[in-house]
Amino acid sequence: MLQLPAPFDEFKVPRQLPYHRLTNFCGQENILHEMGDFLTVSTAEKGSAWKRAVIVLQGMGGLGKSQIALEYMFRNPEAYSAVFWVGATDPSTVCDSGRQILDLQMLIAHYSTKYYGEDKFPDGATDLGIPGQIMRGCEVGEAVAKTPWPSIHRWLARERNSRWCLVVDGLNVPEDEERMRALLPACDHGHIIVTSRITVTEFKIIEVLEMGKASSLKLLLGDSFETASEGTREAAESLAKELGFLPLAMAQAVAYMVKRALDMVEYLKRLISNMTTRYTGETTPTYRKGVVSCWQLSVQALMESNMTNSITSGLRVLGPRWRIKRAPSTRIECHG
Ligand SMILES: Nc1ncnc2c1ncn2[C@@H]1O[C@H](COP(=O)(O)OP(=O)(O)OP(=O)(O)O)[C@@H](O)[C@H]1O
Ligand SMILES: [Mg+2]
After folding, report:
1. pTM, whole model, 2 decimals?
2. Which of 44, 110, 238, 326 would suit a FRET pair with 151, their CA atoms being 20 to 30 Å apart?
3. Which SUPFAM superfamilies does the protein's record reference (predicted)?
């Protein structure tokens, strides 16, 4: 837990995190501690106002960067007066997504109910720098709805409002870095957590690597971590290795096993058989073979279910040349 000065109630707004907490979150303790230590130091430096601190969680896709940022928020529920979560991957999600409108409505609700009362919407709008743009029921005017972020930006930059955290999630390509920098409010306060696949300089970098063996076993074995037989444990160890200790792939494997009521040993057999059929003497790194085979199995079984989206997002880890081919038979292919 962070040691914090008393919160600035004036700027406290309810948190709206974009995802639920993972009930089976495993490992990553060192990273969570390092984040806490760094942000606490920055907090202590300036007494009651918080100095700007930026942490970049850096690592390849599927290693669990976003989940670490989320877990950090859940473990420190009282640390911040406000938390904003911005997706940096797609330009359209940055400035005018429904999410930012929700964030803005949250601010409007905060101002209108806490400080002004039902009949004082105009004052709340002025305070947010968007005079005349807040309607009854916390609706925002058309002009602001198109680009809600600048209003939030201005609010975050206010001098006394220093105890917020902004998560900029998902820097994937070099162009995203510029977009991320533009998102940082022009002030010297606030905590910012960036998740990134690309190298970003200047800030505190925390490298996210493959998951450790013990945490991988926890992820794969779940509730049976303590009680699993020797055979199951060995199969889980082999599976973790074949999947490169990649949390995304391991989570996908667990979902497949649950859906197919398959045990670890059977799943491993299937995975290895799929890998052997597909790869004969190729130079693809072993973990990629395992990861692709894992998704191939999932795709074959789940094409018609709503898990295809997560498989498609999982394929991004392997790079843009990988995609699901739907017809005549469903399979994952590498193009180019
Ligand atoms: N610590 C963890 N414990 C259990 N499962 C995890 C953990 N971290 C990640 N996962 C699983 O892996 C999936 C991918 O994680 P996440 O989205 O955080 O990866 P990422 O590094 O942010 O990837 P990308 O670069 O594509 O955004 C999660 O949806 C979850 O199922
Ligand atoms: Mg992510």
Report:
1. 0.81
2. 44
3. P-loop containing nucleoside triphosphate hydrolases
